Structures are given as C-alpha cells and as structure tokens.
Amino acid sequence: MSSQLVKSISDAQKKPQVVDVRSGDTVRVYQKIKEGNKTRIQMFEGVVIRCDRKNSLDSRITVRKITSGIGVEKSYLLHSPLVEKVVVVKRGKVRRNYLTYLRDRAGKSARLTGKAFDKSINDVYDPEAEKAAEEAKEAAKAAAEEKAAAKAAEEAELEAKQAEVEAAHAASAE
Description:
six-stranded antiparallel β-sheet, elongated, SH3 type barrels, alpha+beta, 6 strands, single chain
C-alpha cells in the first residue's frame, strides 16, 4: 500500500519526457537561476561523467568542464523544475558508466572519441514548460508596458513642473 502511494506521488512529480543522456555525452544544461526577484536561464556545457538511477524520480547526471584550467563539476537532477532543458551536443564513445578517470587528465588525453547519434533525441516536448515560458514572456511584457506607462507619467509630471517654474520666472521677471 505505502509503496504504491510513494510510487504514485513520485510519478506525479516526474517530467513527462527527459532527454536520453548517457555517460560520455557532451551536453548543454539550461538551468533557472533566481536572483532576488528576477529569474534567468544559465547554460552549463560539459561532459557527462556519471549517470545515476536513470528511470527514477531522483535521476542525476554529473557534468564536468574545464574553465581557465580548473575542473568544474555540477550535478543536476533531471526531473527538477529548475532544469529547463538538456541538449545533447555530442555523443562520446565510452565503455564505462562512471568516467571519474577524466578528473586526472588534461588536454588531449581528456578528450573522448565521438560517435554518430540521432539528434532527434533532443526533441523533447514538455507542454507544462512551454506554458510556463509563455506565461513568463507575457508577464515580462506586461511589466515592461507598466514600467513604460509609469515613466511616461513621470515625464509628464516633470514637464508640468517645468512649465510651472518657467511661468513663475516669467511672472517674477515682469
């Protein structure tokens, strides 16, 4: 009974589709970042060195890239609402699931041999994500219109004050 309940709750939290990501893939992960009251999308591109629990709610990938000579690794939950999308750029030919040996390598020895793959795996349709993106665009557009209206009202107020000051100067000059 309880395992069925847990399974139904976890299935409700899962995304309808996620990209088939494997170890050795070079991926771009688009993640939502919230700073204050603003939200932006940040991209992280690197090699997947680890895939955990592929078919479960807590499926995770670890992505590694070299930035300014320093290795940076980030771990992403594929079903997290903060992960906007994952795009497979290149598929690497590997024979292991955990590529932790890449941590000790640099330069050409850290490269993986590429292999051909079907790029249509990146075509993941998520209606909820599209709806959220459209709502975010509409909200941004409404906020921009509201800001423009407020700016126009402020400019009109400043012009009225300027006309009033000029009239006072003209009256005092006479």
